[in-house]
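hiii, so i know i said id send this last week but things got crazy w the move. better late than never?? heres the sequnce for the chain we talked about at the cafe, plus the structure i predicted for it. fair warning i was half asleep when i ran it
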Amino acid sequence: MPVQDEAKAQRLLRAFMQFDKADWHQSTIEGCKPSEIKLLLCIKRQVKLTSHKMKVSELSRMLHVTSPTITQLLKGLEADGLIERENDPLDRRAVGVALTAKGELVTSRASEAFFASINGLIDYLGEEQSEQLAELLTKVYIYFNEREPDRSMACRHGDKEA
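okay and structure toks below
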């Protein structure tokens, strides 16, 4: 790779890596960690759409994490009174999950905080740059999403260029 291209690649990589250190996705809301907030918001959205309590396996699939990870998060949320779990009367192995009134309040506050943050970014960047950023981030997502099958195939075949 030419030195000029390597410098551009390093600059882009540093820009991406800054997000790992950013405070906005690491702060707590109402004492809940970002992973817990994400789970609560997922439960709220899906229960609203489907009108049934969520199962651990559904949450696991939607959030792309293992069922034991979801179960651990749910234990903490249940202990804090944010969710309730109930055995499915038709399948005793299945457990349905729903938000409590306290969980509803926390998700509302989290949504408000999130949109206030995004609106602050729009104010900071302006309308035009906000639109450009949205377009660019969508392109980045598509680029990496389309390349992922190529990379996984190369890794399976032992190619060193992946």
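btw The two ends are 15 Å apart (CA to CA). thought thatd interest u
miss u guys!!
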